[in-house]
Design goal:
The chain is α/β, with parallel strands linked by helices. It has six helices and 18 strands. The chain has three domains: 91 residues, Translation factors (Elongation Factor Tu (Ef-tu), domain 3), CATH 2.40.30; 123 residues, Nucleotide-binding domain of ferredoxin-NADP reductase (FNR) module (Rossmann fold, 3-Layer(aba) Sandwich), CATH 3.40.50; 57 residues, no CATH class. The N and C termini lie far apart (48 Å). It binds flavin-adenine dinucleotide (FAD) and FE2/S2 (inorganic) cluster (FES).
Length: 281
């Protein structure tokens, strides 16, 4: 049996085993971390030697073999340096951190709605539901068809326009709209019946998903992202207004009733200096 533990203080060295180019900008890395057992929704702090340490959702997990995946969107210094790594290179892993998703849907179908690289955080839910043969609807949203994360896998393992739906900003795949708009139309048109919703992606999208869930009386869990330094509840950088809930420790997954109390949800996030950066509406 694998002993469950969290590596908090010192990054555990992990050698990259496999590198998969998912889209132009997103790369998946596979590596081994013995002795840890993350659950869907948790994240690792990933140390890129000589560059930085950054939070990354666990996007794939084989807990029996101790092999895990992260899917990285190259948007800045650390993520670009990480994406330049190759099999055989060393990175450092602390964690897993955070609370994770509650996969109990009370027997009802789950609906997973993700935008862009947000799909990485919710992929373990999808893999778990597929493995257990549980009812599932997936809505995958991105700017263009080429940026739809894990699209080929979903096309192969889910039924297009029945349990798998896409939306793109430019209309190159599925409907030309945002993920929450696709979700809302599917519910209004009685095309899907779901009991619980899981979401991760741009916060404006998640805010709209929460409003659609409220309108239809659906349970919701959303995975949030904030600037992080310690990843383990010590530095306070990821505190949410007004209650000070910590995204790294009390989250990153929050349910609909808590999201309603977080005044900064869908409005702004803080940069490393603590300054509020408002989301573009
Ligand atoms: C719990 C959690 C899970 C995450 N999972 C993933 C994942 O699975 N895949 C992935 O590609 N990214 C994920 N991120 C975001 C990722 O950590 C940031 O993109 C990364 O730290 C940026 O570092 P950088 O040096 O490349 O870019 P920077 O130059 O530091 O920043 C580039 C841009 O990203 C924004 N940014 C920086 N850090 C964060 C952060 N912590 N959260 C949100 N935005 C940030 C900055 O405001 C800036 O606009 C996650 C973040 C959190 C908090
Ligand atoms: S990142 Fe330090 S408390 Fe959350």
């Amino acid at each position: 049996m694998v002993e469950k533990q969290t590596v908090i203080n010192k990054p555990a060295p992990a050698r990259i085993l496999e590198k998969i180019q998912e889209t132009n900008r997103i790369t998946t890395f596979q590596f081994a971390v013995p002795g840890v057992q993350p659950v869907p929704g948790q994240f690792f702090m990933v140390w890129i030697p000589g560059v930085d340490e950054i939070p990354m959702s666990v996007s794939g997990m084989d807990t029996e073999r101790g092999i895990y995946e992260i899917s990285v969107s190259a948007i800045g210094d650390a993520t670009r340096a990480l994406c330049a790594k190759n099999p055989g290179d060393l990175i450092g892993i602390r964690g897993p951190f955070g609370n994770g998703f509650n996969l109990n849907t009370g027997g009802e179908a789950a609906c997973v709605i993700a935008g862009g690289v947000g799909m990485a955080a919710v992929r373990p839910i999808i893999l778990d539901f597929l493995k257990r043969g549980k009812p599932l609807v997936v809505i995958n949203a991105a700017r263009t068809q080429k940026e739809l994360l894990y699209h080929a896998f979903f096309e192969k393992n889910l039924v297009l326009e029945t349990s798998y739906f896409t939306s793109t900003d430019d209309g190159s795949c599925g409907e030309k709209c945002f993920g929450h708009e696709r979700f809302s139309r599917l519910l209004d048109g009685n095309r899907i019946t779901v009991g619980k919703v899981y979401t991760c992606g741009p916060e404006i999208m998640m805010r709209h998903v929460s409003m659609v869930c409220e309108k239809h009386g659906l349970q919701l869990e959303a995975s949030l992202e904030r600037m992080m330094r310690c990843g383990s509840g010590l530095c306070g950088l990821c505190a949410m207004d007004p209650s000070g809930l910590l995204v790294c420790k009390d989250g990153p997954v929050f349910d609909g009733s808590v999201l309603k109390t977080l005044t900064e949800f869908g409005n702004y996030a803080r940069d490393f200096s603590g300054k509020k950066i408002y989301f573009k509406k």
